[in-house]
# Entry
Amino acid sequence: MKLSVRLRGELFAIPCGSGAKTIQWLGEEGLRRYHKSKQDLNEDKNVIGNGTGDGEAVSSLKVNEIRKTKGGALLDRDDHIKDVLDDNDFVSIVLDNDHSSPVTGPVEVTYIPEQEPSSYKAASESLYLDGCSLTTDDLIKLGKGQYRIKLTDDSWNKVEKARKLLDDIVKENKVVYGVTTGFGKFARVVIPKDKLRELQENLIRSHAAGVGRPLTPERTRMLLALRINVLAKGYSGVTPTVLKAYVDAFNACCLPWVPEKGTVGASGDLAPLSHIALGMMGEGRMWSPDSGWADSKYILEQNNLTPIVLGPKDGLALINGTQMITALGAEGVARADSICRQADIVAALSLEVLKGTSKAFQSDVHNVRPHVGQKLVARRLRSLLHSETHPSEIAESHRFCERVQDAYTLRCCPQVHGVVSDTIAFVHGVLTIEMNSATDNPMVFVELGETISGGNFHGEYPAKVLDYLAIGTHELANISERRIERLVNPAYSELPAFLTKDGGFNSGFMIAHCTAAALVSENKVLCHPASIDSLSTSAGTEDHVSMGGFAARKCLHVVEHVEQVLAIELLAACQAIEFLRPLKTTKPLEAVYNLVRSVVKPWDKDRYMAPDIDAATKLIQEEKVWKVAKPFMDHYHEVQSLETPVHSPTSVTHSSAPRAKKRKNPFKH
# Structure
């Protein structure tokens, strides 16, 4: 039996025989090995050296607690190892000296926080990558760990042929950028053959210069999968064994530490991809579900993997490309698409409780301005609001009201939400091409028998469209916040102020609206395009860059804020319904109301609101609002061939006009 024991960031493999010894022994043995590894040979062996001449006395170091690394369960020192631990488990030891202080904060993490549920299971189903057909949906699933990766036989054949061509070029002593020369400003420095491996290793170590928090395991898996997909195209010249090591690491969920900051998006995402390669070399840190963060060499060893050995160009082949921008962008566009569809449902619910009309969504209006997204949103709204298929008592209650027309935030939903839908479709198309593009430099063309230096690594395409995605998606929050204002303001809603009983004694949705306003205002800053900036790097060699890394990261922040603002609107609209009971809305909107009430009860007095906003946000992030309403929407389009005529003061019919007739549903076949 063998255990991996972590103490002060060091990891020790400790043989435990049959496991009959106690946890107390394990703690003492871990401390003994730590002493041995840290003794300063030039100093007293009773002192733990720190390289400065100062140190801690060995006698002062005592074990305070021993925990399972995964989950942080505290282990009883009297228990036998075999009774509470399994072979190859990870254990964390905390010393007395490392207790947290109210002044300095925690010195030693008592256990490694899990970033994924403890129920994580390795995927059994495989997805074949060929460098040409990966979709954003598949990439998201790879990120969630739902697939293992395999490459097609055709891809392996292309990779092997490209590598053979590259090896032949090296044998012929030809000068090729990044293969037999230095990089960037050092492109004219020719490197001797016996230094080519070290050249690639130096490249990875020097370029692994990112800063900030690490990407989550889910995002790191997406980044790793996307790089594998690009290498599978066969234009990089990567050594097949190195590519196989990447695939094996992905399938074992061994994920290197990748700081989120440090890329300027040309030549590609050099720093993030270098951190991936560094971990695969057995250097730096790596994460796995069983160990949390630990030294890469130990994680690889624990999973029966070996560090990669780089040949000519391998280092460059692993780090030239736009995969971090694109991976984060793929998550952003998928979440934006989900929000956009659900925003139509939330807006319909708000329109219903604000006693608006669906007349403005009549197909005649949108056929004369036939933008795809605009028509799509109007169609969705018709399927959600009052109709013969889904009648609404609330709509019937104000059928003959004197309101002349609705506010723009209600009436113009198809026009505003529609352009967001079209934006997302455009961005999705660009990112899908980018995900399946060769972005190396130089590129290896087997059919031409040559390598060509180009600029496919430049991240301008994904950078520009992700700035565009942030601007477009933000508008869903911008208009949502204005609808929240109408819901909580009695001058607009004819409902109790801030949707609460006993106003003054209760504050209701007063500050929830402020939260929405704060998020919208923050988004206005985040929507400033990152890609309009460029700074010359590499001593002027790389004199124009995309800044796509920041474009992708801030886009995700914008998307998250939109999810939260829509969650607040959803809660406010459902609370407004309470004041209109016993009247009922349409079946799809009642289904949404019931979904919300399954996690958030109505407010009859003030209570802690943040958990309710989080719960509603989760419903949106998990697409449950869409999933519960969609069957009713589909049913409407299946059974209702004619649009329901809607009486509204927003329309005026001349006395000479023919009698209004039901309009044919343009989407009914």
Remarks:
- The longest strand covers residues 2-7.
- The radius of gyration is 30 Å.
- Residues 3 and 14 are 5 Å apart (CA to CA).
